[in-house]
Amino acid sequence: NGENPLNLSNNPADDFNPAWSPDGKQIVFVSNRENDQGGGQVLYVTDFEGSAVRQLTTEGESNFPDWSNDGTMITYSHQGDIYVIPADGSGESVNLTNSPEEDSQPVWSPDSQQIAWLSGQSDDWNIFLMNADGSDPRQVTTTGGVSSVTWTIDGRLFTNWRNSGGQCSFNCVMDPDGSNIIEAGGKGEIQQYLPFWTLDGERVECASINLDGGSANEIYLVGEIFPDI
Description:
Layout: E1 15-20, E2 26-31, E3 42-47, E4 53-55, E5 62-67, E6 73-78, E7 81-86, E8 94-95, E9 102-108, E10 114-121, E11 124-131, E12 138-139, E13 146-151, E14 157-161, E15 170-174, E16 182-183, H1 187-193, E17 196-197, E18 203-209, E19 218-223
Antiparallel strand pairs: 1-2, 2-3, 3-4, 5-6, 6-7, 7-8, 9-10, 10-11, 11-12, 13-14, 14-15, 15-16, 17-18, 18-19
C-alpha cells in the first residue's frame, strides 16, 4: 500500500533492475558493489525482506535479469550475449547466443520454454526468439526501432516499436512468430495485455505516472480495487 518503504539492498553502490521471483520470496538485482572479484556489475539475489544477499554471477557488465516462471533459472545479458544460470547458484552460467551482434534484455515466456530478446544496436533493435536451451534462434522483427519486449499473460509478445511500417503505433502486440500484429493502444489498452494479479486474485497494473504536475513520476497501482485516479 506504499507505506513503510524498506531498503532491501542497503549498500552505497548502485543497485538496480530488480526482478521478483515467481513465488514472491526472492529478488534478483544488478549491483556494482565490491565483492571477492574486486567489484564489477554482476547479479545478486536477496530474500523479500533484504536479510540475506548472495552473489549469483561473476561476469562483469551483467544486466537485465529475468526469472523463468518455474523459478529455477535466471536469464540475463552480459557483454552483448544472453546467458542463463540456475537461480539457486548450483551451476555455472551458460552463454546461449554467443553471437557478434549486441544481444540484450532477455525475457522468459510464460511457460519457461522460450526466451525473447533484443538484438542489434542501441535505438535500432529487433526482436529475436529462441528455445530455453539456446536452440532454434529466429528473428521476429526486421525493420528495427524496437525499444523493449516482454511477454503477455497469454504468450504473445508486447513491444514498443517505432518502425512497424504502419502496422501499429509504438505499443504493439504480436504472435511469437511475428504474425497477427495488433495495436496495443494507450494505458487502458496496454492493461489488457500486461496485467498482474495480487495473491488474492485481484487484477491490477503498476504504472509510472506524473499526477501532481511536478517534475518526477511516481509509482501507482491501478485497478478495480483502487480508487479511480
